[in-house]
Amino acid sequence: MTQYKILFVDEVDSEIRRFERYVN
């Protein structure tokens, strides 16, 4: 269960970085 949580957080983090790059 912890592994899935880490994967999920990593995925969200990558999405956020992509969004920030798009905004800036």
Characterise this structure.
This protein is mainly α. 92% of the residues lie in helices and 0% in strands. The chain has one helix and no strands. The model has no long low-confidence stretch (mean pLDDT 92).
Detail the topology: elements first, then pairings.
Blueprint: H1 2-23
How many E strands?
0
β content, as a range? under 5%
- Radius of gyration over C-alpha positions, nearest whole angstrom: 11 Å
Q: Based on Cα principal axes, name the global outline.
A: rod-shaped
Average pLDDT, rounded to a whole number, is 92
Please summarize the sheet with the most strands: none
Number of helices: 1
Uncertain stretches of 5 or more adjacent residues: none
Which H/E pattern describes the elements? Answer: H
The share of residues in helices is: over 70%
Category by helix and strand content = mainly alpha
The N- to C-terminal Cα distance equals: 35 Å
What's this entry about, in short?
The protein is 92% helix and 0% strand. The protein is rod-shaped. The chain contains one helix and no strands.
